[in-house]
Amino acid sequence: MIDSGTRLMRGRMARADAARGKTARIGWKPALLGMLLASTALHGALAAPAKTGAASMQVAQQGRTVPFAIAAGPLPGVLAAYGQATGLQVLYPTDIAQGVASPGVTGNLAPQDALIRLLAGTGLIARFVDADTVTLEKLPAQAGGAAVLDPVTVQGGISGDPGRSEGTGSYTTGTTSSATKLNLSPRETPQSVSVMTRQRMDDQGLNEIRDVLDQTVGVTRLQAGALGSDGSEVFARGFAVKNYQVDGIPRSTVYGFDDSISDMAVFDRVEVVRGATGLLNGVGDPSAAVNMVRKRPTPVLQGYAEGQIGSWNRYRGEADLSGPLTGNGRLRGRVVGAYQDNDSFIDRLHERKKVLYGILEADVTEDTTWSVGVEYQKHRSDDASRSGFPLFHTDGTKTDISRSYNSGADWAYFMHDNLTVFSDLKHRFGNGWTATLNVERNNREYDGLLGYGVRGSLNRDGTGMGIWPGRWNSDLEQTSVNADVSGPFELFGRRHELMAGVGGYYAKRKGLDYPLWYINGYDYSIPNFFTWNGNIARPTLNPTGWSQTDERQMAAYAATRLRPTDALSFILGSRISRWSQDEKSHPNGGAATVKKRSENGVFTPYAGIVYDVTDIWSVYASYTSIFKPQDYKDVSGQTLDPLDGNAYEAGVKAEFFGGLLNASAAVFLIQQDNLGEADPGRFTPDGGQAYRAVKGAESKGFELEVAGEVMAGWQVGGGYSHTTVKNANGQRMMTYVPRDMVKLFTTYRLPGAWDRVTVGGNVKWEGDIHNGTGARRFDRDGYAVVDLMTRYQITDKVSATLNLNNLFDEKYLTSIQNYGFYGEPRNVLLSLRATW
Fold first, then answer.
1. Nearest to 463 by CA among 538, 528, 543
2. Where does residue 231 rank: exposed (0-12), middle (13-18), buried (19+ CB within 10 A)?
3. φ and ψ at 608, to 5 degrees?
4. What are 431-456's pLDDT values in tens digits?
């Protein structure tokens, strides 16, 4: 049962010839006012009847034929097969297809004629939205019951997201571009790509990116602090994940830009490309790139309102409204809002979030679409710690700390205030080529008042501990510009594809410096760690100066997909990058210092090959190089040299039921130098964790994944991953990151009279890990967490979903890197959603 307002069925579109291919101080009101003014201006220009070119569109569709062999059956399944055969997107309100049967269609027919036959007797009609998109609606009463196709109303131009997951009800997607910026199906992409769809996120109640990544195959989250702190890390293939993108635009590597606490209300899906992604990121880790794709306006009116209530006083409200703003549909808009307030299983910890998102999309001409939008998110955690608790007593015995223990002072907090204004302009040329210009301005502020009680050594009587006090506060700005073109070309009588572009960003972090860790005259001590409730004097923290970091990256990149035969494709690409970073420090009464780093002419090659063994199975291989300046520092405070190396991957992929179910198996090898590994028990001069550079590090392993619809009403997503990281001497590294993980979530909509009920379950298993040596070695055994969910469709428009997480109340540690931190105990979440 699908709760969203529309359902989207797509085929393997990349194969179809028809496929087309200042912070809180500034505030969000000026941005919204700007959108309102833009809407007013555009409304006058676009409200007039459009020269839609409907006749030419009809001719174009009639000008080609497609072989159809679609059996009669339930309409949603029939439309899925139709989308696969034609490459067209079919959108429709969920309720109009429930319980409706189609007579099917066979023979070589134009897509338009085939759709007429599929809809015969269903009481539905279809309208072309653009050359690739069709919407369905109920047959008007005056039509006399005849099933007709009405192509004269063209509601939009070239807008649309070919990989859109919203409304599909699926745990997979038909196309992804996060690996190469070419619109390819998962099977055609020569790298491992996991897609967390809108339906999957809704079913599991995944409202934050950290929760999404925690459920993604091959990715592990070492939770070790409150929301907004830097106490947690995400790993893939043995390495930390630092590459975040939004709509394919890379975020700066400067602290505070990584979007690692984003709320999911504004996003359609999350695409995680495992392995090195230097082609599109330039400076990239060999772990993974996380691309969050925003929701876009829809050509039909849709919306929902949802309320959630859960354990630990969790309350959340979310609303989403989207649709055309003019009669001809040439101006569309969408607005999303969310608010969340919750306590935690950790004593005293309280969190709040505010989210607001708006976007306008206009068909300036038949071939040109302009979008402008604003995204605002504010997150705050009070009584918050960026760490857990000691794993050992002074005498070497292990501690036994309560899961609910909070090591944060009662005045400590973390706040992030993010405002993003973005715009893109797309133009489709008559020869199938598309040009896109993206511009984005990101303003942020983070403010953290630190006070967490893991200083010293814990005696058996609770003495010996104190807090680490301090403050982090900075304003951040990032301006990004990207321009690219893509389209087909003919060579040696065959059709190929090309993508080329230029882009870059300028990012700046500037803020006052405050005392950290060591404050003259301040008493850090905690009388008794076991009974401490966070009550300790708040230190006086006056600015000691100011600092600024400037980072720039510019690049030119290109990739081509060559098709020497129908079954064989080569993807070749490269990127030339220029990167620089200046760190300025201005202490009060002292001499200013500047540290400069830069890399010019960095060449990043990319190569991939895919061979279709059958219509279902393909084999692939890919290679890319690794280059990543890093901000890890050693015990002397010196920044480690950039990462460099090579990444190799090979595997097999399968596409079942016309792309409704995707499966993959991959093996990988990553070789790199200067890998930053935590140096246990050692710290930088400013009190941060010290790292050491490891030469000759090698990561290898394999991954298995399946995602999509196994049979009607049965969705599944998950897999198994194994990773081993060793140094040049063959010694295992990153022992605090699990080598083996299983993640599997599935839902099933019951048949017949019980079809209003959907049931589901989730299993997440992580293997054993350890950290430290000798008497101070801490071992954590493997653990498994089981979750359950059920949804009841109360009416056609209202549904209720219940998630029961950690069913057996498994007690486990999510991190043992420096200190211990527990995972969530058993908890429940009840969601009530109304759609229209």
1. 528
2. buried
3. -145, 150
4. 889 999 999 999 999 999 999 999 99
Residue 186 DSSP SS3: helix
pLDDT tens-digit map of 320-370: 999 999 988 899 999 999 999 999 999 999 999 999 999 999 999 988 999
Those residues with Cβ within 8 angstroms of residue 615's Cβ, 6 or more apart along the chain or in another chain: none
CA distances to 24, 86, 203, 706, 742 from 171, rounded to whole Å, are 36, 21, 10, 9, 17
Region at 53 (left for phi over 0; alpha for psi -120 to 50; beta for the rest): left
Distance CA 304, CA 318 (A): 8
Pairing state between β 757-766 and 66-70: unpaired
Nearest CA to 384 out of 404, 408, 348 is that of: 408
As to burial, measured by CB atoms within 10 angstroms (0-12 exposed, 13-18 middle, 19+ buried), residue 795 is exposed
Backbone angles phi, psi at 491, to 5 degrees: -150, 125
| Residue 808 DSSP one-character state | T
At a CB cut-off of 8 Å and minimum separation 6, what does 408 contact? Answer: 226, 348, 349, 383, 384, 385, 386, 451, 452, 453, 534
Contact, 568 vs 492, CB < 8 A?
no
Q: Rounded to 5 degrees, what are φ and ψ at 114?
A: -65, -40
Tell me the torsion sign for CA atoms 87, 564, 611, 219: negative
| Closest C-alpha to 386, from 227, 515, 234 | 227
Q: How far apart are CA 188 and CA 170, in angstroms?
A: 19
Q: Which two tokens stand for residue 331?
A: 């101006």
